Amino acid sequence: MPDVHVSHLSKQFGDVAVLKDVSVTIKDGEFFTLLGPSGCGKSTTLNCIAGLEQPTAGSVSVGDTTFVDTERKIFLPPESRNLGMVFQSYALWPHMSIADNLAMPLKIRKVDKAERAARIHEALDKVGLAHLGDRYPHQLSGGQQQRVALARALVYSPSVLLLDEPLSNLDAKLREQARAWLKRLQADLGITTVYVTHDQDEALALSDRIAVMSEGDMVQIGTPREIYEEPATAAVAAFVGRCNFLRGVVAGRSGREVTVRLDCSGDEVLVLSDHAVVPGQQVTLGVRPERLEVLPVDQAPPAGSSTVNADVLTVSYVGSRFEYDLRLGDHIVQVESKRRGLDGTVRLVLDPAAALLYPSVEVPSAEAEELLTV
């Protein structure tokens, strides 16, 4: 399967810049996800690759084939790109049987009848629905319809598979099952896949690499571990998973050890950071709830950690853990812990290596802050 090259891609709708000079190479056989909130440009990027949108500037190529190049005035129509696409709505023809739905793209490509039958059976077999070819879409569950849409996208052996939020119409439990099944299928086929979603868990579970998009830009591209554990900006940390943000000022520095005085409580905490921050500089401290610990006030914390006193506001049991909301000065901090039954004043424990440190100019944007509890 070929690489997908997107170079300096821009898209304007009137005065609105939906994509801003986006460049990325999606590797052969890679499961690559475009992740971000509504309106960030992820579906527009996918549609430019598919040929459903014509970019204002830039180029898209797959392998040695150029799909679009605005400078050279090249634009291949969608039907000439040999791409498989699955839409959020599945877009199955309701008046056709499942087999006839799969036959349509083969008829357009003038595949003879005998080969059509073999390809349809093979594609349905890949998605576990070979026995349902005579049924109609309304006779299938949502999960089965999603598999049919995927089989139709695979039946003509596309060079790249494009998936636009294909699991969003499924309920939570079925979405988890479909996610695991889709990952196995993509790995078995080895097909280069570009996936669009706003669901962070989905992106982390499925992807080889993720591009986090915001306001038409690719803010960070990396593996799921890099995106979650080493977010490049506070906005990425806010969007991918939950994160507490505490503003403060650098009180001192020695090598990688940075002492931060928190604005919300006046407490000082130690963090490890490679950022070039200096004493007196305003910073934002980010800590994920599972990287914090909460202890009774009379229990000694681990050596080398920073501790501050906080008050328990609420505690929720969620099966595998407890979720605490703590008041730290004038701020609310979320903590995930195995400890049960803590109330009143407690120790909030921070491992210096667990914190993310950002210059204050990198506070989360409005779209990311909607996801925060502050």
Give me the secondary-structure topology:
Layout (H helix, E strand, L loop, with lengths): L3 E10 L2 E11 L4 E5 L6 H9 L6 E6 L2 E5 L4 E2 L7 E4 L11 H11 L4 H14 L15 H13 L5 E5 L7 H18 L2 E6 L2 H7 L2 E6 L2 E6 L1 H6 L4 H6 L4 E11 L2 E6 L5 E5 L9 E6 L4 E5 L9 E12 L4 E7 L2 E7 L7 E6 L5 E4 L6 H4 L5
Parallel strand pairs: 3-9, 3-10, 7-8, 8-9
Antiparallel strand pairs: 1-2, 1-4, 4-5, 5-6, 10-11, 12-13, 12-15, 13-14, 15-21, 16-20, 17-18, 17-20, 18-19
Describe the structure.
The chain is of the alpha+beta class. It starts with a strand and ends in a 5-residue tail after the last helix. The protein has nine helices and 21 strands. The strands form four sheets. It has a six-stranded mixed β-sheet, with helices on both faces. A five-stranded antiparallel β-sheet has the order 2-1-4-5-6, with helices on one face. It has a five-stranded antiparallel β-sheet with strand order 14-13-12-15-21. A hairpin with a 4-residue loop joins strand 17 and strand 18 (322-328). It has helices at 42-50, 98-108, 113-126, 142-154, 172-189, 200-206, 224-229, 234-239, 366-369; strands at 4-13, 16-26, 31-35, 57-62, 65-69, 74-75, 83-86, 160-164, 192-197, 209-214, 217-222, 244-254, 257-262, 268-272, 282-287, 292-296, 306-317, 322-328, 331-337, 345-350, 356-359. It is 24% helix and 36% strand. Residues 365-374 have low confidence and may be disordered.
Largest sheet report: 6 strands, mixed
Derived structural class: alpha+beta
List low-pLDDT spans. Answer: 365-374
Order of the strands making up the biggest sheet: 7-8-9-3-10-11
Q: What is the string of helix and strand elements? A: EEEHEEEEHHHEHEHEEHHEEEEEEEEEEH
Tally the helices: what do you get? 9
Shape: elongated
Please indicate the percent range of residues in DSSP E strands (runs of 2 or more).
Answer: 35-45%
How many extended strands?
21
- In angstroms, what separates the terminal alpha carbons? 46 Å
What Rg do the Cα atoms give? 25 Å
